[in-house]
Write a structure and sequence with these properties.
This protein is of the alpha+beta class. Among the domains are: 122 residues, Sandwich (Jelly Rolls), CATH 2.60.120; 57 residues, Homeodomain-like (Arc Repressor Mutant, subunit A, Orthogonal Bundle), CATH 1.10.10. The termini are far apart.
Amino acid sequence: MFCETFLDSFAVLRTRDTDELHDWLNRNFAVRKLELRGATEPFDCTVNHCALPSIALTYARYGGRIGAEIAHNDFYLQGFPLSGEGEVQWNEHVVPVRPDLGGIAGGPGSHGRFTYSGDFSNLVLRITPAALVQRLAILLDRPVDPPLKLAGPPKPTNVASYGRLVKFLAGEIEQHQAQLPDMVLSEIEDAVIVNFLFANRHNYSSLLEGTPRAAAPWQVRRAVDYIEQHWDEALTIERLTEITETSARSLFLLFKKTYDTSPMVYLSQVRLRHAREMLCRPAPGASVTKVGFMCGFSNMGNFAMKYYGAFGEKPSETLRSHLK
């Protein structure tokens, strides 16, 4: 059966030794116990792993029926099954896991037991608590007290949508590797962390889903001025709320009322405008890919589609018509 793989350029483990796999999983995921359930079956494991400042992505194909136990971890994680099936007991919740059902999320200090079929593979997201709590405080516009606590399995529809975002990030990292600008990685990473809070149930879900108080118009103007002046830098929710002195949800609400769009879409429009200026006045050695990266677009297909929608021609056509 065909199974999609991720992060092949970030291979860390190719082994038939369960002790070697256990050692790596223990160091990276606090896996205290690992056992092969089918002693007579072949075991051939593949692990790819990429770490960013606040998150890490791991692709694993275990190549054998295994059982594992996690205890005393100090991070948040979420798994996205790609093939096979299994069962996860996370604290008091026991849920089946397979591609059509999604996985399960866990937090620091939790206890988990996992059993996977021989053809099981998954993509695992790991988030540092400091980064997650910081984003939550920004969204709430208040300190996170009591501590963030996950509350049961997420809705399959939420996990499916979130899984597509995480897979997109893994695909971009694999395709471009070291070519991705820091601001692109920072913004994608920020989106992954924030969406974790909306995709999963926790003790602050009701506050995130409520109606926020509106921000003052001057705060929206300040956000626009900042975007116009810093379009070529990483723009995160944290920075926007710092300079506008309001919560992210309040700012996004009034931004939508004022411009019928979000700050991030507005940023994309500004970057498209600058991209067109660069393509109309190309520097020596200019290319569509270089300009796209310089303007914060990591996916050239997406860049071309947005550019065509904004200006009615492909970016390659703009560049070609202005090359001397």
